[in-house]
Amino acid sequence: MTSYQETLTTNPLGDELSIETASINHVEIIENVISTLDQENSAMVSHGTGGGSLWKFKYGSVEVFVQLTGTSDEDTITIWSAVLKLPAKDETRLMRYLLELNCSSTFEARFGIIENQVVVISTRTLAELSPGEVSRLITIVATIADNNDEALQAEFGVA
Q1: Are strands 76-85 and 62-68 parallel, antiparallel or unpaired?
Q2: What is the mean pLDDT of residues 139-151?
Q3: Confidence (pTM)
Q4: Lower CB density within 10 Å: C or N end of the chain?
Q5: Burial of 140 by CB count in 10 Å (0-12 exposed, 13-18 middle, 19+ buried)?
Q6: Prior bond to 87 cis, omega within 30?
Q7: Which band of pLDDT confidence, cut at 50, 70 and 90, is reported for residue 40?
Q8: Long-range contacts at 67-76 (CB < 8 A, ≥ 24 apart)
Q9: How many CB atoms lie under 10 A from the CB of residue 68?
């Protein structure tokens, strides 16, 4: 099990509670989470020159992507997985259904459309992002995508 380095800074006033700040290695956390979810040893990673990285792994019947744009508080982590190619049958009913799911069962993720594909996606800045939140975001996207892709394809597949 990996431990994550945390440093405590003391308050100069002395009597008040210490403020905890974390120095978190997001790349290490992402790779640990992926290693627990990757069911076919399919994980791949590409590290960019600007500090960004992109991972891909298989979870159930879907491919999940995790993108880290860098390591500063302003950088983002985005997790997504395609569940249905468009155009689809009865897109009006499909869109209503996806909006209902967005409202009732997607937690911090949501359904959206990227390049003519319905995806499950979640994105967040790295500011104050804990290891538990990273794990939760990746797990939520992977699980929702895997739980919905086959039913969506069966019901709304290619028009």
Answers
A1: antiparallel
A2: 98
A3: 0.83
A4: N
A5: middle
A6: yes
A7: confident
A8: 68/26, 68/27, 68/30, 68/126, 71/26, 71/27, 71/126, 72/126, 73/125, 73/126, 73/127, 73/128, 74/125, 74/126, 74/127, 75/51, 75/125, 75/126, 76/123, 76/124, 76/125, 76/126
A9: 23
Residue type, 2: T
Q: Among 15-29, 32-46, 134-148, which stretch is predicted with the lowest mean pLDDT?
A: 15-29
Confirm if 96 and 133 have CB atoms less than 8 A apart.
no
Residue bearing tokens 């791949």: 44
Cβ–Cβ < 8 Å for 122, 111: no
Residue 45 has pLDDT above 90, yes or no: yes
Question: Cα–Cα distance between 133 and 15 in angstroms, integer?
Answer: 31
The confidence band for 10, taking pLDDT boundaries of 50, 70 and 90, is very low
Residue 17 has pLDDT above 90, yes or no: no
